[in-house]
Amino acid sequence: MKSTGEVMGVGESFAEAFLKSQIAAGARLPASGRVFISVKDADKPRAIEVARILAGLGFTLVATRGTAAALAAAGVPVTAVNKVYEGRPHIVDMIKNDEIALVITTVQEKRSAIRDSYAIRRESLTDQVPTYTTMAGAHAAAIGLSGMGELVPYAMQSLHARLHRERIQA
User: Fold this and answer.
1) Which residues, at least 6 apart from 89, have a Cβ–Cβ distance to it below 8 Å?
2) Are 62 and 76 within 8 A, CB to CB?
3) For residue 150, what pLDDT is reported?
4) What is the spatial distance between Cα 32 and Cα 36, in angstroms, rounded to a whole number?
5) Using DSSP, how many helices (H) and how many strands (E) does the chain show?
6) Nearest-angstrom CA–CA distance, 78 and 147
């Protein structure tokens, strides 16, 4: 049997379980710092929700101009940053300078956006900055970060016994 790299996170809440799964997979989720958000137009409503969670946890937000405008219009504090093709200083420079703790990016189907997205993801990978490329993943990460203080180990046997008892009582 070959390993495929799956990990499992177990917890009393989704936040705890997700956070444990990310830690087990080797992701270094930050407890603080600056989050970069750049999403395609269709994802902006969900990005606002994620940004509110992250801002509420004390993270500072930076975003590309379109995403920053949507966040600001929703009352979320954010600073605009250049896309790569807009010139320096840009987001890849910030990642290289260790100014970004977390990246959330989804991409429009345009050449310049795809090229920028590739540069951002490549630099994030090189610098080991956790990166989420779907809004579902970004939302799960934000919820997970909200549960950072809740991490406790569980014995699988006790969880199994509890599930068995709950099934009998139902």
Assistant:
1) 81, 82
2) no
3) 61
4) 13
5) 7, 5
6) 23
Burial of 82 (0-12, 13-18, 19+ CB in 10 A): middle
Per-residue confidence in pLDDT tens, the chain, 170 aa: 455 667 778 877 888 888 888 888 888 789 999 999 999 999 999 999 999 999 999 999 999 999 999 999 999 999 999 988 888 999 999 999 999 999 999 987 777 667 778 889 999 999 999 999 999 999 999 998 887 776 778 787 887 788 788 888 87
Please tell me the distance from the alpha carbon of residue 101 to that of residue 129, in angstroms, as a whole number.
6
User: What backbone phi and psi angles, to 5 degrees, belong to 6?
Assistant: -70, 150
pLDDT for 153 equals: 80
Edge-to-edge order in the sheet of strand 131-132: 79-80, 60-63, 34-38, 102-105, 131-132
Residue 140 CA to residue 21 CA, distance in Å, equals 11
Tokens describing residue 115: 């090229």
Long-range contacts of 137-141 (CB under 8 A, 24+ apart): 138/46, 138/47, 138/50, 138/104, 139/46, 139/49, 139/50, 139/53, 140/14, 140/18, 141/18, 141/22, 141/29, 141/102, 141/104
Among 16, 17, 78, 54, CA closest to 132: 54
